[in-house]
Amino acid sequence: xxxxxxxxxxxxxxxxxxxxxxxxxxxxxxxxxxxxxxxxxxxxxxxxxxxxxxxxxxxxxxxxxxxxxxxxxxxxxxxxxxxxxxxxxxxxxxxxxxxxxxxxxxxxxxxxxxxxxxxxxxxxxxxxxxxxxxxxxxxxxxxxxxxxxxxxxxxxxxxxxxxxxxxxxxxxxxxxxxxxxxxxxxxxxxxxxxxxxxxxxxxxxxxxxxxxxxxxxxxxxxxxxxxxxxxxxxxxxxxxxxxxxxxxxxxxx
Length: 253
What we know:
Rossmann fold, alpha/beta
């Protein structure tokens, strides 16, 4: 392998992926850019404050087709590096998650297994009172198999690792608050959510691939759970923040 494990790489995720050998990764988690910053009415929450959800150039594509092509290019590389029947969890914008998962399965890249929903206990109020409050984010659980069980009812695709926790922890709707960010990253997912899914889909010493690392929560969770990781984040300031966070918690890499 032309890459070291337990390292954070400041680079485009495709550069990182191309350094990883075939079928060496046990689980991939990727919180993809949502392509929502083009919408001027998008809001997000930090603490008790509401801020405009324009995250910058990294979250903007002119055409939805260009965004899909970009996602597919990345997921093809993810499929290559995943071990057979290894799982992945991808987060996408709610209105596109199902469509993207369908396209990935239709093109026989990965097999769709289930949604994993983060339900927000304290969603942002709808200031204009013109619609429902946005109270969840949509993840998709997919497995590295080219057998599509929706087309062959005899084929039931099972993840190579699936650690069933307590019944109360195994709902695919997971409830956490927003606005309690540990870091300054604008799209941070709850650490407890990330820790739970890594615990389900991996075992001790397994290799977790963390794309679009952002806040670094997948790295922190991997360290807590004694998993190995490969992580990449293109933004220099977030790479620095992750390393500082690890240093403060004395989680050496």
